[in-house]
């Protein structure tokens, strides 16, 4: 064995660069094998109902990302992450068509939902509330795929899907809002370079916390890399957590969540027959009017509210959201969402879904104060899990020796350290992008029955963005669907949303 010695004046940066040439350095300084991309590319054909067809390639696998060492000195990048993604590129529609980068949220969720529920050329046959598809689950051609109008890259955040840290790196460094933002932005930059797509319009599509991520990533692309997104699509958005986080988890005196959730409660009550003879829009309009006028004044009074007025308010709220007035009054007129989902169908012995309030299931404890589990994710999860594992292996040819993490508990605790003593929000990022890039447009999709990210909270934040009023009216498109958080599990909503996204990417 030959001994080798480093000069005594070798810097840490030089050592890191030397290590990068062979591989990553472990915690003890040993050299690990340099990680490599693991990508599988397959060719496909999608027949469309109009008689035309779409030929495309699908590239599935892990992309090794590298970073320069910290400090003033420059050196070659070292591997720090192996991010899993599936890239769909049409082979017969030009090389400068738009590219859509899509991700779900959680934090801790893979992008299986957008991938196989809405955007990809194949979709899961999951069924819907009250009409679930039983096993064996299947995959169908998605004739509304965004691939008709743009190339598509679905990305799994760190520790979700097959995404993992590079050998010797730590995953938890990416488990936080800012580090996660930087990781996804770095992946986008890397993908554009590898695929020679810098002249293609870039669109970001996020769902749930993925909208938090999309807004933050858009800001990072503009601020750090001077990349201007053509469009940002926000499905079931949360842009300011103070609008949806209740008092038990947030400083007392913040009544905003109670106001913003009320229209969603009314929509859920309607879905379960609590408003016979009335349309959904009629019920929602009444609830929104109350939430924006009388309700804030009632809550602002606190103990100063006259008992008779409080009783009248409890009866009015109860009638809107389909529960008993005594229960509303005991809650001090402040109805928390997990409690509501346990209460609204209590007399029928059922709990209601948070992700989608149209779903319900038998309650395990009829006296439980809050919903114990979410029927919507419980009932939809198995079909998506089966479909993604079968699809990646059998149709895209990618296998791995680790589990595809649909929901990963490994990302917790998720760090919001940058927002200490203030609300977590990315509305300022979104507004800054709109101010800096006059061509960027925003599409927003709301589900009426979404009790995770209520539509009225998003409406409020968007209406108060620090941008010119004309920009709000002309550059932000907002659509509503008679479904929940994942509105695409409702077939009419899926078809409508697919068309709306196509219009958005086409610039219509």
TrEMBL record:
Q: What is this protein called?
A: Carboxypeptidase
Report which superkingdom the organism of origin falls in: Bacteria
Q: Where is this region: Disordered?
A: 1-36
GO molecular function list: carboxypeptidase activity
| InterPro entries named in the record | AB_hydrolase_fold (IPR029058), Peptidase_S10 (IPR001563)
Where is this chain compositionally biased, Low complexity type?
10-24
Gene3D superfamilies in the record: alpha/beta hydrolase
Keywords for this protein: Carboxypeptidase, Hydrolase, Protease
């Amino acid at each position: 064995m030959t001994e080798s010695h480093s000069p005594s004046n070798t810097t840490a940066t030089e050592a890191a660069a030397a290590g990068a040439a062979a591989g990553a350095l472990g915690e003890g300084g040993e050299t690990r094998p340099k990680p490599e991309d693991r990508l599988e590319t397959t060719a496909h054909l999608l027949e469309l109902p109009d008689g035309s067809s779409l030929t495309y390639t699908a590239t599935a696998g892990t992309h090794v990302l590298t970073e320069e060492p910290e400090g003033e000195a420059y050196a070659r990048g070292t591997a720090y992450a192996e991010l899993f993604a599936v890239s769909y590129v049409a082979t017969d529609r030009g090389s400068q068509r738009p590219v859509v980068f899509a991700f779900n949220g959680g934090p801790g969720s893979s992008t299986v939902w957008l991938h196989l529920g809405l955007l990809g050329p194949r979709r899961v046959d999951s069924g819907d509330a009250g009409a679930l598809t039983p096993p064996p689950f299947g995959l169908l051609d998605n004739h509304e795929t965004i691939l008709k109008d743009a190339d598509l890259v679905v990305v799994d955040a760190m520790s979700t899907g097959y995404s993992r840290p590079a050998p010797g790196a730590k995953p938890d460094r990416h488990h936080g809002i800012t580090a996660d933002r930087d990781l996804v932005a770095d992946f986008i930059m890397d993908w554009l370079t590898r695929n020679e797509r810098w002249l293609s319009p870039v669109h970001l599509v996020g769902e749930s916390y993925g909208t938090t991520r999309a807004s933050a990533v858009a800001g990072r692309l503009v601020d750090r890399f001077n990349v201007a997104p053509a469009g940002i699509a926000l499905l079931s958005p949360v842009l300011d957590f103070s609008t949806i986080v209740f008092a038990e988890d947030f400083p007392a005196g913040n009544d905003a969540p109670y106001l913003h959730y009320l229209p969603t409660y009314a929509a859920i009550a309607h879905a379960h027959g609590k408003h016979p003879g009335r349309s959904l829009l009629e019920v929602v309009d009444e609830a929104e009017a109350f939430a924006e006028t009388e309700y804030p004044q009632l809550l602002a009074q606190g103990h100063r509210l006259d008992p008779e007025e409080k009783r009248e308010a409890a009866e009015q709220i109860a009638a809107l959201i389909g529960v008993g007035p005594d229960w509303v009054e005991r809650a001090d007129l402040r109805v928390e969402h997990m409690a509501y989902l346990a209460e609204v169908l209590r007399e029928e012995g059922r709990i209601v879904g948070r992700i989608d309030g149209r779903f319900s299931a038998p309650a395990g404890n009829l006296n439980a104060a809050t919903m114990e589990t979410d029927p919507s994710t419980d009932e939809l999860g198995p079909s998506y899990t089966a479909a993604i594992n079968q699809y990646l292996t059998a149709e895209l040819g990618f296998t791995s020796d680790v589990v595809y993490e649909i929901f990963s508990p490994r990302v917790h605790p998720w760090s919001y350290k940058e927002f200490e003593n203030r609300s977590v929000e990315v509305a300022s990022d979104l507004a800054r992008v709109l101010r800096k890039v006059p061509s960027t447009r925003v599409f927003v999709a709301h589900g009426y029955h979404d009790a995770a990210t209520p539509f009225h909270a998003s409406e409020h934040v968007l209406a108060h963005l620090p941008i010119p009023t004309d920009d709000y009216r002309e550059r932000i498109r907002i659509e509503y669907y008679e479904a929940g958080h994942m509105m695409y599990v409702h077939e009419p909503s899926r078809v409508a949303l697919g068309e709306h996204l196509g219009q958005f990417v086409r610039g219509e």
